[in-house]
Design brief:
Elements: H1 5-8, H2 15-27, H3 32-50, E1 56-61, H4 65-79, E2 83-88, H5 97-104, E3 110-112, H6 115-121, E4 127-131, H7 143-154, E5 158-162, E6 184-188, H8 200-204, E7 206-210, H9 218-222, E8 226-228, E9 252-256, H10 264-275, E10 280-285, H11 290-296, E11 301-304, H12 307-314, E12 322-325, H13 333-343, E13 348-351, H14 353-357, H15 363-372, E14 377-379, H16 383-389, H17 398-409, E15 412-415, E16 421-423, E17 429-431, H18 444-457, H19 462-480, H20 486-502
Parallel strand pairs: 1-2, 1-4, 2-3, 4-5, 5-6, 6-7, 8-17, 9-10, 9-12, 10-11, 12-13, 13-14, 14-15
Antiparallel strand pairs: 15-16, 16-17
The structure holds ligand NPW and potassium ion.
Potassium ion binds at residues 66, 130-134, 161-164, 166.
C-alpha cells in the first residue's frame, strides 16, 4: 500500500463520515474547489507515475463530484502534455457546484458517454481514469454505465479509480449492480470501509491515499469507530517481555484437547499460544488422549482432565488465567457444560469451532452466560459458525453483522475470512487486510484461536488481543509463504515478532 501511515492514520471512514470531514473543512475556511483541485491533482500524479507525457488517457467522468475530480485530473494532465479524451455520463446542464467549476475550466472537449464509442477507443489508452461514481453512489448501476463498465473490465487497460472503483459501496464493500475492476485506487484523507471489506478490496487494486488539506483534528468530532488492523491499534497494549519478569508474569494458558483422534487441533493452538509469548501453556486432555498428546508435546505441558469434574479441578489453580476450548473438542451437550464452567470461572476465554457449534440450537443461552462472565470472552467464528450462532444477522454486511454479533453476545467477535472483522460490544471494529490466500488451510483457525488465547494470558485487553492475534496470524502466514500448512504458522511468528520488537509499527 502506497502511504505514509503516520499521515494516513488507521481510521476507516464511511462515505457519510468523509462527507462530514469535508463539511467541517469547508466550514473552517478551505473552499470546496481547493479540495477538489488537490484530489484531482493526486489522480493526475498517479497517472504520471504510470505513463509518460504524450500518452493517451481516457477520463470517464460521472455527474457528481467524483466526476469533478476527473475533470481536474484531465486538465492537469492536458497541461502536462498528455492526450486526454474525456467522456461524461449524464447531462452537462445537470453538473453543479465544484464539479461544474472544474468542467468549465477544462481546456479539452467532452463527449457524451457512449459505451460503443468508449469501447472503440479503449485499446489505445495507456490509462483509463474511472471518475464515474464515488461516495455518492446510492443505487445499483445499470443501463449504459453498466455496459461501459463491462467493456472496461474486459479490455486490457490500466484503470485508476478515483476514490472508489465505480459500483463499489464505500460503506460495505458491496458491488452495486456491477463495478470497475481497478489496478489502482486513489482516495483522499483516509481510507474508506469499502476499500477493505470484500468484495470491494478486490476491485481496488493498489490503494493510494492522498492528503487534500483536511485537518486530522476533524476526526475528534467525527469519532470514527472502525479501523484498519495495524500495529497502531494495539501495540501499546502489547506487553513485551521484561528482563526482570519471569514466565508467571506472562500468564498461563489452558487449551482443551479433544479425544484421541481429534487432538491435533488443540496441539496446534497450544503451540501457537506459547510461541506468541504466554509464559506457560498447559494442554488439558481427556484420559484417552493423554498418550497421543504426550508423544507430541515438549514445551507445552500436559494434564489429564476427566469430564466436567476434571475441568472444575484443574481450574482450582489460580495461575491458569486464560482458556481456549473448541478446536477438535466435539459438538455435544457436554461441550456446552464445559463452556459454562469456563465462563463462570472468571478466566479470559476463547471459544472456537465446536464450542460455538455446540450452541447452535440455543445461542441465547451462550450469550447470557457470556454477559455474566467476569472475564473477557472472544468468539472466533468462520462464516458457517457465524451463521449458526447468529442466524438473525443473515443478509447484513460483514462489518455491521460482526458489530451486532458482539453487541448481542457481549463478546469480542472475530468474524473470520479474507477480510476478518474484529468487533467489540461497544461498536469499535477493526478490519484485517494482511492475510495471504494460502492461510486458508486446515488447522489455520486453530492456530489463530491459540494465538489469541496466548495474548489474553499475557493480560492484553480482549479487543486488542483479538486484533493483534489476527494480524500476527496474517503476517506469519505471509512470512511462511505459499505451500504453508498449519504447522508452519507458529514457527513463522518468530521473525514477525522480532520485527515488531525492533519496529513497533510492524
Ligand atoms: N468529501 C470530500 O471531502 C471530497 C470528495 N471528493 C469527491 O467527491 C465524490 C463524492 O461526490 P458526490 O457526493 O457528488 O457523489 P458521486 O460519487 O460523484 O455520485 C453522485 C452522483 O451520482 C449519481 N448517482 C448515484 N448513484 C447512481 C447510479 N446507480 N446510477 C446513476 N447515477 C447515480 C447521483 O445522481 P442522482 O442521485 O442525483 O440522480 C449524483 O449525481 C467523492 O467520491 C470524491 O471523488 C473530492 O472532490 C475531494 C473532497
Ligand atoms: K470512481
Amino acid at each position: 500500500m502506497d502511504e505514509n501511515p503516520q499521515e494516513t492514520g488507521s481510521e476507516l471512514l464511511t462515505p457519510e463520515e468523509m462527507g462530514e470531514a469535508d463539511r467541517l473543512t469547508v466550514d473552517a475556511g478551505v473552499p470546496g474547489p481547493v479540495l477538489m483541485e488537490r484530489a484531482g491533482g493526486h489522480v493526475a500524479e498517479a497517472v504520471m507515475r504510470r505513463c509518460r507525457a504524450g500518452s493517451k488517457i481516457l477520463i470517464l467522468s460521472g455527474p457528481g463530484n467524483n466526476g469533478g475530480d476527473g475533470f481536474v485530473a484531465a486538465r492537469v494532465l492536458h497541461e502536462a502534455g498528455y492526450r486526454c479524451q474525456v467522456f461524461l455520463a449524464g447531462e452537462v446542464d445537470r453538473l453543479a457546484g465544484d464539479a461544474r467549476l472544474a468542467f468549465d475550466a477544462l481546456p479539452v472537449a467532452v463527449s457524451p458517454l457512449d459505451p460503443d464509442l468508449v469501447a472503440s477507443v479503449l485499446p489505445g489508452a495507456a490509462v483509463v481514469v474511472d471518475a464515474l461514481f464515488g461516495a455518492g453512489l446510492d443505487r445499483p448501476l445499470d443501463g449504459a454505465v453498466a455496459q461501459l463498465i463491462d467493456a472496461v473490465n474486459k479490455a486490457d487497460v490500466f484503470v485508476i479509480s478515483v476514490d472508489l472503483p465505480s459500483g463499489i459501496n464505500g460503506e460495505t464493500g458491496a458491488v452495486m449492480g456491477c463495478a470497475v475492476e481497478a489496478k489502482e485506487t486513489v482516495t483522499f484523507f483516509r481510507f474508506k470501509l469499502g476499500h477493505f471489506l470484500l468484495p470491494g478490496r478486490l476491485a481496488c487494486g493498489r490503494l493510494v491515499c492522498g492528503q487534500i488539506g483536511i485537518d486530522p483534528a476533524v476526526l475528534d468530532k467525527i469519532a470514527p469507530s472502525a479501523f484498519r488492523n495495524t500495529p497502531y491499534l494495539w501495540r501499546s497494549a502489547w506487553p513485551q517481555p521484561a528482563l526482570d519478569g519471569h514466565k508467571f508474569t506472562r500468564g498461563h494458558a489452558l487449551v482443551f484437547s479433544g479425544g484421541m483422534t481429534t487432538s491435533g487441533a488443540a496441539r496446534l493452538a497450544a503451540g501457537a499460544a506459547l510461541r506468541c509469548g504466554a509464559g506457560l501453556v498447559t494442554l488439558a486432555a481427556p484420559p484417552s488422549a493423554v498418550m497421543v498428546n504426550a508423544a507430541h508435546l515438549t514445551a507445552v505441558m500436559l494434564t489429564p482432565v476427566a469430564g466436567l469434574a476434571g475441568i472444575e479441578a484443574v481450574l482450582e489453580d489460580p495461575r491458569l488465567n486464560a482458556a481456549l476450548i473448541g478446536p477438535g473438542y466435539g459438538v455435544s451437550p457436554e461441550t456446552r457444560q464445559a463452556v459454562g464452567i469456563l465462563l463462570g470461572s472468571g478466566r479470559a476465554v476463547v471459544l472456537d469451532a465446536d464450542a460455538l457449534t455446540s450452541f447452535e440450537t440455543e445461542p441465547q443461552a451462550l450469550f447470557s452466560r457470556i454477559r455474566q462472565a467476569a472475564g473477557p470472552v472472544v468468539l472466533t467464528p468462520h462464516g458457517g459458525e457465524f451463521r449458526r450462532l447468529f442466524p438473525h444477522l443473515a443478509g447484513r454486511d460483514k462489518l455491521s453483522a460482526a458489530r451486532a454479533a458482539a453487541a448481542d453476545s457481549g463478546a469480542v467477535v472475530v468474524y473470520k475470512g479474507a477480510d476478518t472483522v474484529i468487533a467489540s460490544p461497544d461498536g469499535t471494529a477493526a478490519i484485517n487486510g494482511n492475510a495471504p490466500a494460502w492461510l486458508a488451510t486446515a488447522g489455520s483457525g486453530d492456530v489463530l484461536a491459540g494465538i489469541i488465547c496466548g495474548l489474553l494470558a499475557q493480560r492484553m485487553p480482549a479487543f486488542q488481543a483479538a486484533s493483534m492475534g489476527v494480524w500476527l496470524h496474517g503476517a506469519a502466514g505471509s512470512a511462511a509463504g505459499p505451500g504453508l500448512i498449519a504447522e508452519d504458522i507458529a514457527p513463522a511468528l518468530r521473525p514477525v515478532l522480532a520485527r515488531l520488537v525492533e519496529n513497533p509499527e510492524g
